[in-house]
Amino acid sequence: xxxxxxxENLVVKxxxxxxxxxxxxxxxxxxxxxxxxxxxxxxxALLIGVPGLAKTLMVNTISRALGLDFKRIQFTPDLMxxxxxxxxxxxxxxxxKFIKGPVFSNIILADEINRTPPKTQAALLxxxxxxxxxxxxxxxxxxxxxxxxxxxxxxxxxxxxPLPEAQxxxxxxxxxxxxxxxxxxxxxxxxxxxxxxxxxxxxFSAEEIIxxxxxxxxxxxxxxxxxxxxxxxxxxxxxxxxxxEIVKNYVDWGAGPRxxxxxxxxxxxxxxxxxxxxxxxxxxxxxxxxxxxxxxxKNYKAEAEGITEExxxxxxx
Length: 317
Description:
This protein is of the alpha/beta class. 47% of the residues lie in helices and 15% in strands.
């Protein structure tokens, strides 16, 4: 299949995929869009939202519709790295045998990742970056595609371990979940308090998703679009010559080069699912807030004046 035919085929299947997910998930269209872009671009995503917004159900539904294995890990203060990665045990023949942990799956839901100590958070880092883990000196490859979706509760900060900036940077997208609208909440209550059960049909396979990730990397990008993305990221850095006054006043640290890479990859994915064969500046802007919001570190002045990361990023367009 040529790349043109592959793009056209993906547009059709992407539409079917969203219809399949909408059988179970009411509303949250932008959240679903960003999760799917992250999967197709081969990145990871951080979901930030209060409890009860169906984050687990959403990830489970998306993984079933994509035809991928799904595991949920509930992060707690006493969780150890071996609880995630797996451990070696002595079998009946006195040989060491490796028992795989829940990290060996296609889609991992790391629930409330900020509830666990840094040592356990770091255990997920190698898996996210290298798509492999090291246990007792042995290197184990993870099955592809591999995608980590972590959730964070923004309201309870007592007894939590905020993710360090270096770890936040590993996530392609930071996605904010809002409360549903009145009509959406009525639909949620009706569908979840009855006996209706919706069957989700898998529309993809692991091999197809790997092919989509390869297709997106092959999509050509004009030099002016790459330069726009790099300039946009540069403007988030207060010490940068091109940084506007608002950034110098309200930002402590800006985004690094990984943000530029992720902007282009996500813009390619955004272009492809919308039937375009090359991304333009509008595609970069469409994904910029999700890519940059967790990489722009505000100062105390911004906090005191109630200025959000979204407001700062929109001012850069």
